[in-house]
Amino acid sequence: MRAVVIIPTYNEADNIQRFLTQVRKDAPNVDILVVDDNSPDGTSQIAKEVADRLGQIKVMTRTTNRGYAAASRDAMRAAISDNYDVIATMDADFSHDPAVLEQLVSQVNEHTALVIGSRYVAGGEVTNWPLFRRLLSRWGNLYTAFCLKLKIKDCTSGFRAYSAKQLAQINLAELTADGYAFLTEIAFVISRNNLGDVVEVPINYVDRAYGDSKMNTKIMRESMVLVTRWGIALRTGIGRKHLPR
């Protein structure tokens, strides 16, 4: 199966060279698509230099409609158009272990639409997070799974592998989330429409050592508002037309 990993970036100059080199070493059979939102720190240029040296790496530089969700949608469309069988996603800050990438990719099959690298199934871990952030993430995922009737322990993990065939059945343009709520939204669409099994694989999530986290209160607020709205619509029918399809 042809596989590609999408790596959305913004101001990852401190990480990108080391990260791409490690992915190329640990997952030699997976192509790489860096999608950068025109980072002012030169992330895109560094990625292009690494791509020229290592190969199997493409860099997409975006200058409009910035954000995690928009970047992910653009890159997913490009990967589907390039006829990949499996489309993975991961972060460039080493919070996701490149050594686990091929394991996620290998578990996508005709029955499995989504494989999630999960912090919250048996064997999953979180390293270097303060207690408050652990509790907030854990509570957020429990709340999300309850509201949306999902049997997923880690709805917000960005370390994933999708079946491109099943992903192509989703109208990505109709998804409404701007930030990391996109991860929950797309998992919800896959589950709600029975596009295939969702499998969770335990991972150790390690907090970044270099650069700044992109998580902020605006992103968290968007996630809670959307999940609550979708949960109400799912249970009462109020606002059902706004449910992701």
Give a verbal description of the structure.
By secondary structure, the protein is of the alpha/beta class. The protein has one domain (3-242): Spore Coat Polysaccharide Biosynthesis Protein SpsA, Chain A. It is built from 8 helices and 9 strands. It has helices at residues 16-26, 43-54, 68-81, 101-106, 131-148, 164-167, 181-192, 217-236, and strands at residues 3-9, 30-36, 57-61, 86-89, 112-118, 125-127, 160-163, 197-202, 204-206. The strands form 2 sheets. A 7-stranded mixed sheet has the order 3-2-1-4-7-5-8, with helices on both faces. Strands 6-9 form a two-stranded parallel ribbon. Strand 1, helix 1 and strand 2 form a beta-alpha-beta unit. The mean pLDDT is 93.
Could you name the key traits of this structure?
single chain; 245 residues; alpha/beta; Spore Coat Polysaccharide Biosynthesis Protein SpsA, Chain A; seven-stranded mixed beta sheet; two-stranded parallel ribbon; 8 helices; 9 strands
